[in-house]
């Protein structure tokens, strides 16, 4: 989708800015509570903060993947009906997210031996896994060019992934490699992340606004990607979507499990009781 889309609607850009900025504001309020207990030297309070909000830290790390990938590629798209690009909005969210992420990392280092001791190791593994897979995604979506490298974590790692992908392209093994990478990422992140979600409603709104940037025309009535182009080879035309984006055989089973999990979570997030601030641990 990122390779084929060239324009983004103004409403989609505005929605992404609003919901992303709102979520960052919520994260900042959570971090302010940690600063308050640090100011009075309340070690027990800091320990309770990490016990209550370690899932928020997870979401700050994991959400960084989407923020960086969008900023790296969608930023070059043009806004429909306007003589401007999407980059200023996406870069602003990227920098705000980067600042919050840095604040979280500094807090982890300050509390790694006391208040955050029980959570530090796992959260650090989450951070490292996100960095690895973010670099892999950026290298995959854009196999050439230096602009996108600025949004990754390790330039040498991204260059190495590009070289590896270039090698498998010579033997037409890219679909297999990408399926394996996707499966490996899902398995690793599932092992590291906790099942509970700190900000389910805010995360859903950010993801929904991100998908709106590609427009509903990219999907059919079943929610599957439509063909995005044709490739002429010795055997005739081939649909690029079938090579690159064909769903895994177990995808529908996996999707049903996701829906079954999200329905009670979304119902709880949308309920009027407990209050919204309590539901989000603010």
Explained architecture:
It is built from ten helices and four strands, in the order βααβαααααββααα. It is mainly alpha-helical and 282 residues long. The chain has one domain. Strands 1-2 form a two-stranded parallel sheet. It has a two-stranded antiparallel ribbon with strand order 3-4. Helix 1 packs antiparallel against helix 2. The radius of gyration is 20 Å and the shape is globular. The two termini are 36 Å apart. The C terminus is likely disordered.
Using brief descriptors, characterize the structure shown.
282 residues, mainly alpha, two-stranded parallel sheet, two-stranded antiparallel sheet, 10 helices, disordered C terminus
Q: What is the molecular shape?
A: globular
Unreliable residue stretches: 228-249, 265-270, 272-282
Largest beta sheet, briefly?
Answer: 2 strands, parallel
Radius of gyration: 20 Å
Distance between the termini: 36 Å
Mean pLDDT: 78
Structural class: mainly alpha
Proportion of β residues? under 5%
> How many helices does DSSP assign?
10
Report the order of strands and helices.
Answer: EHHEHHHHHEEHHH
Task: Say how many strands there are.
Answer: 4
Strand order of the largest sheet: 1-2
What is the share of helical residues?
A: 55-70%
How many separate structural domains? 1
């Amino acid at each position: 989708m990122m390779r084929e889309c060239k324009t983004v609607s103004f409403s989609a850009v505005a929605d992404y800015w609003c919901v992303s900025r709102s979520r960052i504001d919520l994260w900042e309020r959570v971090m302010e509570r940690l600063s308050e207990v640090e100011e009075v030297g309340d070690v027990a309070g800091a320990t309770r903060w990490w016990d209550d909000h370690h899932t928020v830290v997870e979401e700050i790390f994991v959400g960084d993947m989407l923020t960086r990938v969008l900023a790296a590629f969608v930023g070059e798209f043009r806004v429909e009906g306007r003589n401007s690009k999407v980059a200023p909005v996406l870069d602003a969210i990227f920098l705000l997210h980067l600042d919050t992420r840095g604040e979280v990392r500094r807090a982890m280092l300050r509390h790694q031996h006391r208040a955050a001791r029980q959570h530090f190791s796992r959260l650090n593994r989450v951070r490292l896994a996100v960095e690895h897979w973010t670099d892999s995604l950026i290298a995959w979506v854009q196999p050439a060019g230096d602009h996108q490298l600025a949004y990754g974590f390790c330039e040498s790692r991204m260059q190495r992934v590009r070289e590896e992908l270039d090698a498998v392209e010579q033997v037409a093994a890219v679909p297999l490699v990408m399926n394996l990478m996707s499966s490996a990422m899902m398995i690793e992140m599932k092992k590291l992340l906790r099942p509970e979600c700190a900000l389910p409603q805010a995360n859903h709104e950010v993801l929904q606004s991100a998908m709106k940037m590609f427009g509903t025309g990219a999907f059919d009535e079943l929610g599957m990607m439509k063909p995005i182009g044709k490739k002429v080879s010795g055997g005739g035309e081939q649909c690029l979507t079938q090579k690159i984006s064909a769903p895994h055989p177990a995808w529908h089973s996996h999707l049903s499990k996701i829906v079954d999990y999200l329905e009670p979570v979304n119902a709880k997030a949308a309920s009027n009781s407990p209050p919204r601030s309590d539901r989000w641990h603010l």
